[in-house]
Amino acid sequence: MNDQGYSYMLRGNLSAARRKFEKAYSLDPGNPVIANNLELLNGSRRFIERPPNNQP
After folding, report:
1. Over the range 12-42, which residues count as b (16 or more CB within 10 Å of their CB) and which as e?
2. How far apart are CA 35 and CA 31, in angstroms?
3. Closest CA to 17 of 28, 1, 32
4. What pLDDT is stored for residue 43 in this prediction?
């Protein structure tokens, strides 16, 4: 789950990444890698440039 979430994050699909990370976290809440990836995802949302009206 965590690896899938990371792959989605690298490809820019942040919604799918969040779902995978949250599922991974629910299965293993003590895993620091998953917690760090969620933190990374939360921080990256502020810096990603998106085109107007979500156009490619």
Report:
1. eebeebbebbeebbeeeeeeeebeebbeebe
2. 7
3. 1
4. 85
Tokens at 55, concatenated: 């156009």
CA atoms of 32 and 12, how far apart (whole Å) = 22
What is d(CA 48, CA 54) in angstroms, rounded to the nearest whole number?
12
- Going by C-alpha positions, the residue among 29, 49, 52, 32 that lies closest to residue 40 is 32
Compute the distance between CA of residue 17 and CA of residue 28 in angstroms, rounded to an integer: 16
pLDDT in single tens digits along all 56 residues of the chain: 999 999 999 998 999 999 999 999 999 999 999 999 999 998 876 655 555 555 55
